[in-house]
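Hey all, sorry for the wall of text incoming. These are the two entities for the joint prediction.
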Amino acid sequence: MRILVVEDDPKVAGFIQTGLEQEGHAVDVLHEGSTAGEQAQVVDYDVVVLDLMLPGRSGFQILRDLRARKASLPVLILTAKDSIEERIAGLDSGADDYMGKPFALAELSARLRALTRRGAPHESILRVADLELETVRRTVRRGGKAIDLKPKEYALLEYLMRNTDRPLTRSLIIEHVWDIHFDSISNVVEVHINSLRNKVDRGFGSQLIHTIRGVGYMLTDKPT
Amino acid sequence: MTLTLRVRLTALYTAVFGVLFGAFTVVSYQVLARRLDDDATSHLAELAEGLHGFVRIREGEPTVVFNPADVSQSAFIHEATRYYRIYDASTGRLLAESTGFTLIGLRDVPDVQKSRAQPTRFDLLTPQGRFRISTSVGSQGPGREYLLQVGESLATMDGTLTRYRDLLLWRVPVALIAAALATWWMSRFALRPLARVAAAAHVIDITTLGARLPLRGANDELDEVARAFNETLSRLERAVDDMRQFSMALAHELRTPLAALRGEIELDLRRPGLDETRRNTIGSQLEEIDRLKRLIDQILTLARAEAGQIPLRFTAVDLAALSAKLVDDLMPLAEARAIDLRCETRDGVMVQGDAGWLERLVLNLVDNALKFTKTGGRVVVRVVEIGNGASLEVRDSGVGMEPAVTSQIFDRFFRADRSRSSASEGAGLGLSLVKWIVDAHEGRIRVDSRPGEGSIFTVWLPATRAAASGENAGSAGHDGMTSGRSGGQRAGAGSDDMPADGLAGAGGVTCTSSGVNFQNRFLGGAASWICIDV
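and here's what came out:
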């Protein structure tokens, strides 16, 4: 997809561009936001990554400008101001998602993917190798053998399978599987991943749930 | 034992008063005694001198000649002749003696030579009391000298002095007691404003630095103390504000370079052909950056909380249901370490609170309990209705704490002995946040702990906002309990500067359990996401 990044810090803008281009996206970078609206009108972007603290014009003004010109264009706000109130203010002024610095590149790309995929219908049966998950009946089988999962384990597996081959960060997983913010404490995710591994991977030929150190977890049947 | 200012003031004042009053007593007694003595002496001299004028000696027989018709003369003679005797100066023969003098019992013959030049005087103690005797020589012509002794009783004078002395002797202690009582009372009166200043100063801490002592408007020394104290508070408040601003600015400023660092390292990780060791090294660097980010988040949250910048949204929250749900969520953590985690509660224990922050409160307490409990231990969460509020108790069979430690655990960056918590992460900010949440809800928190046996954290939260003030007033100074106070947070809680309406609408779609505060879902920027997945 085609992505516009409005970010004044050259290093941050640089790694976003490199990282997203590596994933096969086309990325344009603006270091200040005055022309962002026009740019978005000229080029048909799929999504915009917008830093809130920019020299000259504030991110909020740019956001309003973007909204005025292209109401449906998804915008993800990127900022060093990361409090609940600021998030609420950001989302309220028309952003579609919000990320505090520092962030994982994997998470940025996952969020951008989700923003552009909005409204896409969900498959009712998910398959990875010999692992099969049926969302309607909430059943899981591997190699034809039924696996009994607790509700949280099931939710975790479904989220991993919907994002097959893509690394998911701890915070993304927490956001989707729990409705509580565990950020600063506890290794809730690790513990659940372990118990899920015991049921889904142990005793079967190949390992599907992988840990990517420093990034998160990924469900894949391809060798890493 | 230290003496209070009031006791010392009273003692000092009474001592000073005692010394002054004692000195006055002694001096006044002596002055009176001297004066009376002088009066007696001059009176006796008058008697003797006067009597000489009325004595006539003819052929060795003395007579006292006076005019009985003269009242003053006869009164004088009556008095002067009560105690007198006359000797012949040359022979030493007793010529006359009054009955009174005989009764005095003085038998010595006076020495003429001694009294010739000038009358002499001496005092004599008899069974009838003290007497003063004057001896003088008179002459009725050449060779007809005689010796006149006149006496007077000092009984009246001595009686007066004795009575006066007795009066003083019981008056001094009575006066001293009265002085002490008066000082005690007056000092209480004088020190009462000081006690008010102290009481006001006692409740001021870092969260209530905005409070000021009231001035009485008397413009006196106590107002001066209050003013000086208020100025100190203002300086402290400015310093603390500066520090908060600084830590907030610092935390913000750190985020962008950290983002750049993290991004570049993550790109490194994507390079093909990395071996396992290299991948692990890079992964470890990323983990450290994530830890830094969490630390910054916590510091910012605390700084903002203490600066009163976090508005709370109060609704009726079922603390029991909330705790049960959280315990359920954390159960795998406990199971992984064979800790018996259980929640002993029935639903329907209502409190007034911000559901998001109450969740954080329970989470942090349970997480803390799990951290410090060894494998095979037990953690029990109990929520019960108590008074007009709810009590949340988190009891663990963990390592426990020394009493000296319990008083510090709510301090920032305080961590009880690192070696005791197994591989725990966190910078010791979790309990500081717990303390802030409790304070912001006007609740109280207490820690009971025994080394080797475990700890019990007890939180009391009011069922209504009104209950908080009533309960707090009643329990001021409760040992070990920290009263929640109204700081900037409460003011913030009432204001509605956030776009609540729009969010509440969004919350209606995503909310699965009614008690969950929508704020919570925005942590982690989750709002739009939850919409998609449900």
